[in-house]
Structures are given as C-alpha cells and as structure tokens.
Amino acid sequence: MEKIMKSTKLVQKILRILFWIVVVVSVVSACIMIASLIFMDDTAVIQGVSITIGNYRLKLSQGYSRAQLINILWMSLANIVLYGGLSCYAIRILQGIFEPMTQGKPFNTAVSDGLKKLSYTVLIFGVVRLILQLATNMVYDQMIDISSLFAANMVESCSLTVVGDGDFIIWFFLIRLFRRIFIYGETLQQLSDETL
Asked: Which residues cross the membrane (predicted)?
C-alpha cells in the first residue's frame, strides 16, 4: 500500500505541473491570437500559409490579407480556448481521482465519481474535437481555393471530406467499465469495514 501511495503522490505532482503548463501555454497562445486579431494591419499580406492534404504539407506561395485570415484566427482562438479549458478540467478530475489514493483509500467514492466525470469529459472532448475539426476544415476550404492548386487538366474535381476519429467513444466506455470495477471495490471495502 505504501508503494501505491508513493506512486500516486508522484502522479499528483506530475499532474499539478502539467496543469500549469497547459494553463500557461493556453493563455499565451490565446493572447497571441487575440493580439493578431486586434493589431494585424488590414493591408498586411501574410506569406507562408500551409495546408496539409493527407500526408502532404503544401506551403502556398500566395499571400493572404487579414480579411482572408480573420476566420482562421477566430477558429484558432476557439480551438485554443476549448482545448485548453477541457484539458485543464480533465487534469483537475484526474487529480481528484488520485487524491484518495495518496491517502491509501483507492476505493473511495470520490474515485468512482471522478471516473464518471472523466468519462463524460472524454466524450465531450471528442465531440468538440470533431465539431472544431469540421469547422476548421470548412473555414480553410472557404479561404483557399484548393482546386486551383492543381493543374486543371489533371484534376477533374475537388471536394472536402472530414474523417473523424471515434476513439473517444471507446475510451468513454472503458472509463465507465473502470468506474464499475471501482464501485464494486467500494462495496467490498464497505462490507469489509462493517465486518471488522
């Protein structure tokens, strides 16, 4: 039990450091995006815009103005705020799950409650990620005329397809399963305490 308590205390320290790293990176990135939105000159032309198509990364030679980039900047800000906020929330939940374990109580009700919150956070995170991925791709598609990047006699048509990753659903059910195991452990712990 002592070894488990030590290792969970180490995990708690790592989570605490990770939380502040996520906070700092999110705040700095959000401030950079906000500054870009506010202070970017309307006449400025941004060079070096790149897009990824499958395994290919294309650096475009065309420059883009603030008016053309404004939607991408807003979408980037939304991504930073939502991912940063949800990541911080998930880290806080994990800290709450590991807290009883640092005290030698792995089958505390706080653990199963935390696992329930974590499962729904993973589900929400996955759905938000799919929505933001779709929205970001649509904004890029609006901004960049993809079909003009290819030789007209080589490409007949060009369409946007967004393929989402549904792994978050599997993680949701796995975490729910772990929660059931911990609830069963809580029941056994309670019965053991009552017999003593």
From this structure: 14-38, 72-98, 118-140
